[in-house]
Amino acid sequence: MPSQFKGVINQLNKIGQLINVASDQLEILRKPDRVIEISLPIVMDNGLIKVFTGYRVQYCNIRGPYKGGIRFHPAVSLDEVKTLAFWMTIKCAVADIPYGGAKGGIAVDVKKLSRAELERLTRAYARGFADFIGPERDIPAPDVYTTPQIMAWLMDEYGHIKGENTPAVVTGKPLEVGGSQGRDTATSLGGFYIMEQVLAKLKMPKKRVSLAVQGFGNVGMNFAVIAHAAGYKVVAVSDSRGGIYDPNGLNIEGVLSHKQTTGSVINYNGLKNITNEKLLELPVTILAPAALENVINEKNAGRIKAEIILELANGPTAPEAEEKLHKNGVLIVPDVLTNAGGVIVSYFEWVQNLRHYYWELDRVESSLEKQLTNAFKKVWQTMEKQNNRDMRGAAYIVAVDRIARALKVRGI
Ligand code: NAD
């Protein structure tokens, strides 16, 4: 398989040529600061020992402590974690929050673990990385197949090791142990704010918009619920087992309770099921991928009919697909902006933990909107200056410029 990390660094190099950043400064962003791979032996419920592999990549901490989620998925690899850690560095700079970038993961199929095995594995991860993480050092958070419960176990294990109650060591925790109001829906709400700003710029009225959402987990499901409640027509949704499509619009509340009872969105209310591949090629205004990387790639890019790709997932559009999509006039609203709501509210959670003072939901949501609106304006203005429709390029320019300035004043 070609290296995903190489692909994104090539993208960075291309953008580097457009902006006034010295090559040696860019060099700092071409490699992670630290890469850690550990073995995680745990005793399974049947008494046998199984050894999993855990990763943490600390990419850059020039603008603040390392920050990034932990992914539990069978496809997790060092190459993927490096890529995700790079994107976190860019994202935190685009969002203008005082963090660097990191990411972690375990190659595991959580659906095959019991709850007790999952807890043991999570605690083993916390023990393995306890000397590398910390509130001023590196702050993990949830990602694919990692939940607030998993964050609570991480925090608890870390607290036992350090002999201190340290809620600020992870974000995305349950409210009972220092989580923030609004964290569970923050990524989706942020994506929704960004979508509305884009539509306003394009002067596209709500009634003309149809939406297809791939992935019905934390991000995709909450996004579909928020968009539907705001009066947008969501015509298709999917999860790992497949999708459903109704050109007249889905009743998202109904789909949600169907998913809660059956475990999937498929076979809903007599509708025809569609595959995840077909969902991506539907004739919709906005396609919102909210599952995994590279789902829009060289093979299917020419068949994408959406006018806008709203990247709720990290890296859903492969770099090789991007040029073709631009040529076909598709506007790609990049992940580093669209899904930054999650890390922004994680930042608010960390601030609340450090202050031991907790905010109400209104304050969280209005602060999120303000932070993202500023980020959006900066990216959009930068794109206009470049005189193109490359929003990812513009977001990278904003981020690299901010990191380079911090680097300059710190003098490394
Ligand atoms: P999740 O585990 O809650 O949900 C993932 C969803 O994707 C599930 O509905 C699953 O069924 C579906 N899925 C899995 N494999 C699939 C496949 N092959 N085809 C279609 N769907 C598939 O994860 P999440 O937290 O919602 O994360 C989704 C994406 O959003 C990831 O790219 C993640 O990195 C990104 N993201 C998440 C957050 C956050 O706060 N959770 C923040 C920023 C970015």
Report the average pLDDT across residues: 96
Tally of helical segments: 14
Large-scale geometry: globular
Q: What oligomeric state do the depicted chains represent? A: single chain
Total number of beta strands = 12
Helix-strand category? alpha/beta
Between the first and last Cα atoms, what is the distance in angstroms? 35 Å
Give the strand content: 15-25%
Order of strands, widest sheet? 9-8-7-6-10-11-12
Helix content: 40-55%
How much is the radius of gyration in Å?
Answer: 20 Å
SSE arrangement, N to C: HHEEEHEHEHHEHEEHEHEEHEHHHH
Provide the low-confidence segments as ranges. Answer: none
Biggest beta sheet attributes:
7 strands, mixed
List the bound ligands. nicotinamide-adenine-dinucleotide
Essential attributes:
412 residues, alpha/beta, seven-stranded mixed β-sheet, five-stranded mixed β-sheet, 14 helices, 46% helix, globular, binds nicotinamide-adenine-dinucleotide
